[in-house]
Amino acid sequence: MAGKMGRLCREDGLTYAYILLYIALSSGQIFFNKWVLSSKQINFPYPLGLTLLHMVFSSVLCFILTKVLKIMKVEDGMTAEMYATSVVPIGATFAMTLWLGNTAYLYISVAFAQMLKAIMPVAVFILGVAAGLEIMSYRMLFIMSVISFGVLVASYGEIDISWVGVVYQMGGVIGEALRLIFMEILVKRKGLKMNPIAVMYYVSPCSALCLFIPWIFLEKPKMDEAGTWTFQPVVLILNCLCTFALNLSVFLVISHTSALTIRVAGVVKDWVVVLLSAVLFADTKLTVINLFGYGIAIAGVAAYNNFKLKKEVSRVNTNESQNVEVTSLVNSSTSQRADS
Question: Which helix (H) or strand (E) holds 187?
């Protein structure tokens, strides 16, 4: 009995350690990206180039882990047709998300960028309804209205607002919403389930290609014009490694808990980022209106996550009851054949 309790305590402790690792890495990566892009010491104000480095690094490391060292498994079942119709759109929208989201850090504060990200469930829901994955209801309409109102209040409270940065950030939100919709289509309609490492294995090379083309025309001329590339390779490699470690932490948390835990941890992470950024960055000036509006938006996000959880539990229970009914019918039919 004592041994069983000790094992459970160790498992719970490991789970909480993974969650804390995810929150630390996710928050740290946001601050790291902001520092690399904005710092005069690093001198690398190229969000496209930084994101391209992340994807190339991730592609190489995923290949080594899955094909060379074979530490992690990539699920079978990927076809050329599935790659072209599902993975390519996911890769393109993922590239769009990272590019536009990182570019926003050049114009707006980290805290305000996180506040704008709270609108994500609204974008996902609207696109989900358009794609036939979600059903419009009065309850969901109310929740979406609460989130939107909260984000509007938070935006109204921003002192130094840059509409260019807002446009970039909202573009990143739309890209992420599209990526999540394509991911759901890949899982629900095409039946392929992949862990985050397998997703990165397939998606990273596609995203790298999608980023490489605009980088040639938009940022490479600026980098050439600036003269000799004087950026610090060690810092950029550590930044890429932190990005990959973040994706690995997502895999660890989901494998030990659930996707909902990642959502809840994400909400905690957002608050950590908002509050810490006010201490770490001079361009972050939080106001009472900012925090009040963000609090409303987060309450709406929590209601959205709760609604999705209940819906998922209801779906699982329905499937289980149907399986029980089918098993009962099969057993009944078998016993009737035996009697006759």
Answer: helix 163-188
Secondary structure (3-state) at 178: helix
Q: How far apart are CA 113 and CA 274, in angstroms?
A: 9
> Angle CA(310)–CA(315)–CA(320) in degrees, nearest 5?
125
Residues in the chain: 340
CA–CA dist 203, 87 (Å, integer): 6
Q: Are 312 and 258 in contact (CB under 8 A)?
A: no
Helix, strand, coil share (%) of the chain residues, nearest 5: 80, 0, 20
Amino acid in the structure at residue 305: N
Q: Which two tokens stand for residue 259?
A: 């996707």
Query: Tell me, what's the pLDDT at 4?
Result: 60
Question: Is 147:300 a contact under the CB 8 Å cutoff?
Answer: yes
Token pair of 147 as six digits: 């989130």
Alpha-carbon distance 127 to 133, whole Å? 8
Do residues 179 and 97 touch, judged by C-beta distance below 8 A? yes
Any idea which residue has 């900012």 for tokens?
290
Q: Mean pLDDT by 10-residue block, N- to C-terminus, for the chain (340 residues)?
A: 62 78 90 88 87 94 88 77 87 94 92 91 90 86 93 87 93 91 75 75 93 94 78 87 86 68 78 87 84 92 84 67 50 47
Contact 301, 267 (CB under 8 A): yes
Q: Which residue is associated with the tokens 């990182």? A: 102
